[in-house]
Specification:
Distance between the termini: 12 Å
Shape: globular
Largest sheet: 5 strands, parallel
Strand order of the largest sheet: 2-3-1-4-8
Number of strands: 8
CATH superfamily of one domain: P-loop containing nucleotide triphosphate hydrolases
CATH topology of one domain: Rossmann fold
Helix content: 40-55%
Strand content: 15-25%
CATH class of one domain: Alpha Beta
Length: about 210
């Protein structure tokens, strides 16, 4: 039986950071739909080119593009024990598709990281990403040792286009309209737990460990 975690929450709630820690803790592959999209964009694949115009506007990428990427990733041998999903599903139709990908015997738990808009805008607008290795920093909470340079590889730290305030606000509007209904979808399935997404990472992980006792 595979063990699977779905991390829900608005942009900036910490799904990627929390997912990385849980991946290390439980030895499950972390699948980030955002990372997959950016990888395809960087490689210039057909899917990446199609997705770019939506990402640049802070809109959700169409289901057919995202689902194909995620399904291919989940078919890898590394996913044999289960996965941690970060940023997928984002719509009810994607959730229905994911239900069909999971085996009927799989255990699935959904963690919703909750945070208000002002906190999210502050966190995302101060986020910086290494343009070489992809490591994420925060100018206040997790600054680099050398200003503007990655601690790991020395690459240049940049602000993603979708981390600018006007784009963040638009992303949050899209989230509330299309993604928030997933909360009720998974609550009805009785597999949803709500965890604060605006506290210390250690506290968030400890809270999740109390809920998911693997």
């Amino acid at each position: 039986m595979k063990k699977n975690i779905i991390l829900l929450g608005p942009p900036g709630a910490g799904k990627g950071t929390v997912g990385s820690k849980l991946s290390e803790l439980w030895g499950l592959l972390l699948i980030s739909s955002g990372d997959l999209l950016r990888e395809h964009l960087k490689k210039g694949t057909d899917s990446g080119i199609r997705a770019k115009k939506y990402m640049d506007r802070g809109e959700l990428v169409p289901d057919d593009i995202v689902v194909a990427m995620v399904a291919k990733e989940m078919s890898k041998p590394l996913c044999a024990r289960g996965v941690i999903m970060d940023g997928f599903p984002r719509t009810l139709s994607q959730a229905a598709m994911l239900d069909r990908i999971f085996d009927s015997e799989d255990e699935v738990r959904v963690i919703y990281l909750e945070a208000d808009d002002d906190f999210l805008v502050n966190r995302l607008s101060l986020r910086r990403v290494c343009d070489s290795c992809g490591k994420i920093y925060h100018l206040v909470n997790l600054p680099p040792k050398r200003e503007g340079l990655c601690d790991l590889c020395g690459g240049k730290l940049v602000q993603r286009d979708d981390d600018r305030e006007e784009i963040i606000r638009r992303r949050l509007e899209v989230y509330r309209k299309l993604t928030a209904p997933l909360i009720e979808y998974y609550r009805d399935k009785e597999i949803l737990s709500v965890v604060p997404g605006n506290g210390r990472l250690e506290d968030t992980i400890n809270e999740i460990k109390k809920i998911v006792k693997w």
